[in-house]
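In this section we walk through a basic example: taking a raw amino acid sequence and producing a predicted 3D structure, encoded as discrete structure tokens. The instruction is simple. Fold the sequence below.
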Amino acid sequence: MHTREPLLSASRASAPSSCGRGSMLAWKDFRNLGLLLEPLTLLPQPTLEGERIILRGSRESDIDDRLRHPIDPEEEDGYGSSWRREWDGRRYHTREDLMEDRGRRDSGAYRWAIECDGHCIGSAGLVVDPDQHCASYTVGVFVAALRGRGLGREATRLVIAWGFGVLGLHRIQLEVLATNGRAISCYLACGFRQEGVRREAQLYPDGWKDFIVMGVLQSEYVSR
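The resulting token sequence is shown next.
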């Protein structure tokens, strides 16, 4: 998401010693000095329970729940515009497509089904970079009638609390479509701060759209 010049070369760094001569320090030396952290240990995915929702692993019945609700371009666009390249205008997902998406799993990726009143209504995800102690967050509710009721906010707070309090993350970040005011309000309420804008980052049918970069640090979360 962000790029910057490395502070040190990948193999070694030089620093003046107290004797005035150059000293070559390997990465292990920086770790021994406490300047580098050990990679996070990736824990098994937990079940997280809130007041109205449960975040849990996927079930076969989740696909049936998703198939009962039509494709909502507004919701899909929130994840980016790439889905439109394959969309043929059909109103509903196919079981085959949902099964294929369900089988994709990256290393360090946690994906929860959002359950409300016994049915899956959306999903939340956290993709962790163990070396950098950070993660990227996503959330979505595919049941249009349930949006705007604070369920996404409840899911976000559950994931943030687990990510910082149990997994030990230093930072959680996300990107959100700049025109998605409801999602931005949700993230601000959960402690995220706007950090920048990726201008005209993706092309939609009605033109190029900006994405807002947001993030929250563990220290900020603890102080809330």
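Looking at the output, two observations stand out. Strands lie at 13-16, 22-25, 48-49, 54-56, 109-116, 119-129, 134-141, 171-177, 193-204, 207-217. The two ends are 26 Å apart (CA to CA). In the next section we compare this with other chains.
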